[in-house]
């Protein structure tokens, strides 16, 4: 799943470790989510949204094909 | 030409070396006991002693995980519990193995001796279950579960393969507790695969 | 009459029946009341019950809405592998006992029952990879972990008693039935509170 984590982090000048600490997960996990290798569960996605004070839809992007199908 | 500090980190980051040594020893013990070169209960004692190699292996693996930012509180707790149980296991195994020589065959004391090393072995399994329950980082838990499924697959393949060869009288029998070390080896392979596929950190 | 009675049985009935038969054979074999060849034939024969188990299981899955294309593929794969196993085992036992084959050919014969079991492990792996419904995949993974826990617990327990010569030896191929039993128990435990919607009315 595509997401804007890297951009959002850059805007706030946070390192992956900074975000990991805020989310209470490991740096490797932040990396896996950011690169789209791992899709977070709903609770974790909400936690990420809370940390950035945004909604989930502002951070995670639907697949273009899926969006086109709707 | 390599500076000392660099060489040290590289040395600390070589869990594969210790794992290889451990596996080689295990294979040697297995061959010797299957060919009846070793009498019971010598092999489990040797295996228990071999477990001491796991200490530097875990240390090196932890260092590498630390570098990759993959260590969570639950991992640390798991490592402490697991290492503690392995050491207890080694001590109990050596102790029980030594004591069998002084106890008459078929005496009820034998059951006590058999149970003694079993408790730390169950402690290891318990430590793993606690880890899965306590890990709050869902991505790390996901990877642990995946790696242990690889271990499960290895156990089932080995058990079936060896079991039938044994039933047809082609290979000698092995003790049932092979499941645990075989699973641990599969777990290691699974971890390595997931590390290789998902890569470390950016 | 008997036919409807049989088809109405839920998967639990078949699992219970298979488990009871397997346990009975295992007890007989371990206590050496029957020899290993008889035990294998009886174990393999019990496998025939997998067919009604699958049928009733699929009906149950469809009713409770927990069926998916991957599950149907899995069921078909498992059934094919089970039947291949029974066939392979039968041929292998026939060749060794009735025809008295010996020597290196035995390595090939031993492969007859081994290959279908490897196929089962492969079908399970494929299922977990292919299942697109994340909840069903989660269920399958957890069931596998339950199977693993039961297998490791039992094997360690048995292994130590065996090492100190308190119990007799258990063959390695028992790991698959023990794993399957653990999976079944875990699945039942996890889904016990989930009832199909229609049942409430």
TrEMBL record, chain A:
Signal peptide: none annotated. The keyword DNA-binding applies. SUPFAM superfamilies: lambda repressor-like DNA-binding domains. SMART domains: HTH_XRE. InterPro entries: Cro/C1-type_HTH, Lambda_DNA-bd_dom_sf. Keywords: DNA-binding. GO terms for molecular function: DNA binding. Residues 5-59 form the HTH cro/C1-type domain. It holds the Pfam family HTH_3. Gene3D superfamilies: lambda repressor-like DNA-binding domains. This is Transcriptional regulator.
